[in-house]
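Sorry to interrupt, but I need a hand with the structure work. Go ahead and set the record down below:
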Amino acid sequence: MSNADLEKSWNDLFESSQDDSDRVSLLFEAARAWVDKVGVTALDRVAGSLEDSEERTSVLVRVLDRIADKHARAAFDFALTVDSERSDFLVSVAARRFAAVDPVAALEGLSKIGKSGMRRNLQNQLVQYWARNEPSTVLAQLDSLPLPAKVRGQAYSVALEHLAQETPVEAADIVSSMEEGSWKDQAAYSEVRSWYSTDPDATLEWALNDPGIESVRSGVVRRVLMQLAADDLEFAMKTALEQPLVAGESGPEAGIVSQLAIDDVATALEYLPMVREGQSTVEAYPAVGRGLVENGMTDEALNLLTEVPDVARERYEQQMFGAWAAYDTSGLVESLDRMRSEEIKSAAALILLMWEQSGNPLSRDHSELATSLLTDEDVKELSQYKSDRMP
């Protein structure tokens, strides 16, 4: 059939199928036949005929999906021109089909999308799809693609995680050889997630000793040991305490205890005294305090407050009392009078009043009681907190 014959068939079907329950399917078949004969240019006429937005989208989505193997780039370029309430959906469908045929060209083509949010979202979707299916190719080509750093970093992580499931040593070598950058740490963490499940000993050896990950070693070791703790807690803690502390970071033992505070708070309490002083206690003590409250052990959380190192005290109070306010607001108010010192009472009252400012109203009596317990210093802190929240 000639182009003219196909157009006549389309026009006749368009008019005769107005009341047909299979109208969309019939129109799709006619449009597909037309495009197969003359190419994507026929879609301009098809789209122009379909005034109903839902009907236009339904027909075009089917056609674009069907012709993508032969006309992927042209289908994508056409989708960018469609004026429809669901044009974003059409572009997404065409972009995904384009990426299945030629991922590099598809990613480059996304630069034509004017909406920055939609462009970034599709970049992320397409590159991660490609990373899952061809991780080695992605790792080899990713640096040459016009992608935002965050999207590139996420793609590295996905590609390495999938490569590590098949060839973990190769993936580890790639991570080790990567230049220092914002996504080397994420790539290394992906390697740990995949490799540890199949060979924990080799993963730990790599984390502790590979010279290529020196700049991200502390984070990598932390993640390995947190996984190891579920299998051999004693060995994981022993190994954690052997690691040097990095300035400004908590030791890996703090991560283990913090995870225990979620899974087994009684064991977390047992291991808490082993945590080294400094930033490690700032992480571990508040995590245990919060864990105690979330397990209904509020008396134990209050008792532990008397043992918290000074460097961790403020954060402990914030997290422990914050969890208590969320878990049992009335119970925290009723416990104020039996707290051991005016400073502790004020710290709890301050959290309650901040909680109230965040849209969780207290009763009038509770609010007045909490206000009456504030020290002068905490009165100033509450005032600053209210000021900071004003628009």
User: Anything to note?
Assistant: The chain has a mean pLDDT of 89. DSSP finds 23 helices and no strands in the chain. The radius of gyration is 30 Å.
